[in-house]
Every structure is written in C-alpha cells, then in structure tokens.
Amino acid sequence: MQIRLIATADPHTRVRPGDTGTVLHADGLGTVHVRWDDGSTLGLVSGVDEWELLCERCGDPLVPGCCITVGDPEWER
Ligand SMILES: [Zn+2]
C-alpha cells in the first residue's frame, strides 16, 4: 500500500509533506507504520498526522471507485 504525507506534527522527522512511502502495517492503536522512499521510517498517528493512500495501479489518491477498493484485505489486517 502506497501512502503520501500531507502533514505531520513530528518536528524531528526528515519526511516532508508530499513524500511517499510504503505502509508496513497499521497497529491497533491508530498508528500507521510507514517506510518512506528516502529509507526512513515514521509512524503516522490517526488524528494527529494527515496522509492519503495511493492507488497501487494508477498512483492517484485512493478513493472509492478507483482501480482497487478501500476495503483492501491487506489494509484491514
Ligand atoms: Zn487507480
């Protein structure tokens, strides 16, 4: 699952809005763990950081009706 950062509240990270990465997994606490394309990792926190998921086929923001569905089983796991 590809992801693009919109905003982060973490002042220490090298990751900047617009950067993209790969979702490693989402834990049960609302944190999404991401390996960014520059090699760093940063956990995004729901309600604090902002991001959007990208369609793996067309690279556009993932929205209902795009190539794959939002309810992707890999994301739910
Ligand atoms: Zn698509």
Q: Any overview of this molecule?
A:
The chain is mainly beta and 77 residues long. The protein has a single domain, classed as SH3 type barrels, CATH 2.30.30. It is 5% helix and 38% strand. The protein has one helix and five strands, in the order βββββα. The chain has one helix at 73-76, and strands at 2-7, 20-26, 31-36, 41-45, 50-54. The protein has a five-stranded antiparallel beta sheet, with no helix packed on it. A hairpin with a 4-residue loop joins strand 3 and strand 4. The radius of gyration is 12 Å and the shape is globular. The protein starts with a strand and ends with a helix. The mean pLDDT is 86. Bound molecules: zinc ion. Zinc ion binds at residues 55, 57-58, 60, 66-67. Residues 55, 57-58, 60, 66-67 line the site of zinc ion (ZN).
